[in-house]
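# nightly structure sweep
# worker-07 picked up a monomer target from the shared queue
# config: single-sequence mode, recycle default, output format = structure tokens
# input follows
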Amino acid sequence: MLRNDTTPLNQYFSLPKVELHRHLEGSLRLTTMLDVARLHGVTVPASMFNLSGLVQVQDKDPMTFSNFLDKFKTLRLFYKSPDVINRVTQEAIEDAARDNIRYMELRFTPVALSRAEGFPLHDVMDWVITSAKAAAEKYNVKVGLIASVNRHESLELAEQVAWLAAEHIQDGMVGMDLAGNEAEFKSEPFYDLFKEAKQAGLHVTIHAGEWGPAENIREAITKLGAERIGHGVRVLEDESIVALAKERNTTFEVCVTSNYQSGVVKSLPEHPLTRMAAAGLNVTVNTDDPSVSRITLSHEYQHACEDLKMPISTLKQTVLNAAQASFLPNDEKEKLVALLKSEIDL
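# output follows
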């Protein structure tokens, strides 16, 4: 998805940015994966070019959900040690800082990071928190962490993650996320868990309306307490849910390239981002899995303006939308919004 002509990208790179929807597990550098493979005996192709085909969506690939998810089967092989998890966390934040991102909420799935070597979930949580804190200070970018659980995994595992996240609110854990296959797995088993997480002080964002119908967005808002919706691109299928989202001031974490590469939309120009904004919905622009998609947030801004014909003024407003929808404490949020307003010419 990377464009050959990088000159127009500069105007998007120069914008200060906020990222609300980026998965740690989709942010690994190819060079890091090759290093890990050599150190830990992971069997992968010896060249970056060949490895790229296994872990990144290629232009020639079928743009389907199954192809997109296949990349993660290989990615899961690399979480071989605490040092690896520390490195990929720090590099994800460094890459964000290099793209002029001022605030990022980085979500991670403790169960996925623990599985390759059977690490205890509490250790994984500690490693990510410690690494993120060090990287945020080193690269001068503010970072909030979101713990993600999957619909297709057990409620017991999700409960463990939620308890750990709640225990670490003072350490930068800001929210909980429900992800996974919404087409085949219901979210109902998680209703009480997310209610309790919210009562404990965690914010809530839910993947919904991506591979499932718009009705899943209503469920996320009314049953799971979602303040934000991950993707949510099918919301326009139901006017009553559009109205609900506007009434509740629900924010949509839209990921344009990911939605195209995973087959949610058939082409970039058909993506509903601009129609969602025109309908009065609170939209933001995000990467989802920048390494898997071979993009930066600057590229997503470029797609929004040049492929989807979003006016640059609207794009700038989405940056402020993201800051205002962040899970930061109110005083820190106000400072972030004020900083961005001072730098963004609207």
